[in-house]
Amino acid sequence: MVTKGQDHSLAVYPKDEFTALARRAAEASRSNPQARAFVRALAASTDEQRPDAQGRIMLSAEHRRYANLSKDCVVIGSVDFLEIWDKQAWESYLAEHEEDYSQARDESLGGIF
């Protein structure tokens, strides 16, 4: 399942992971404008893809536009899903957020450390 991700990347989920995400999103309060916008964007921007014999998937023109994908892309493992980034956008993101990773504190990461 391919959908718009955060920071103008694309998110690629296994179908069961996406289904769980969609169910959690559907439980959000419909009176919250941000929740409504998220659910709508998630539902409207998701494409089910099946890899071809060589393991490739097709990305829609809308997905390529959203992520500003050019010739060179980067695929990032993100624990339970993948992210697809334009290479230059990923390099800019890393440069901008490198210190965030180094300075991450337990309270901002929900107690994972």
Automatic annotation (TrEMBL):
Q: What Gene3D superfamilies has UniProt attached to this entry?
A: Transcriptional regulator MraZ domain
GO CC annotation, single: nucleoid
Cellular compartments annotated: Cytoplasm, Nucleoid
An example Gene Ontology biological process:
negative regulation of DNA-templated transcription initiation
Cytoplasm recorded as keyword? yes
Q: Which PROSITE patterns match?
A: SPOVT_ABRB
- Care to name a GO molecular-function term for this sequence? transcription cis-regulatory region binding
Q: Could you tell me the keywords of this UniProt record?
A: Cytoplasm, DNA-binding, Repeat, Transcription, Transcription regulation
Concerning Pfam families, the annotation shows: MraZ
The SpoVT-AbrB domain sits at 46-89
Q: Which family does it belong to?
A: Belongs to the MraZ family.
Which PANTHER family does this one have? Answer: TRANSCRIPTIONAL REGULATOR MRAZ
Q: How does it assemble?
A: Forms oligomers.
- Which protein, by its recorded name, is this? Transcriptional regulator MraZ
The organism named in the record is Nocardia aurantia
Q: What is the lineage of its organism?
A: Bacteria, Bacillati, Actinomycetota, Actinomycetes, Mycobacteriales
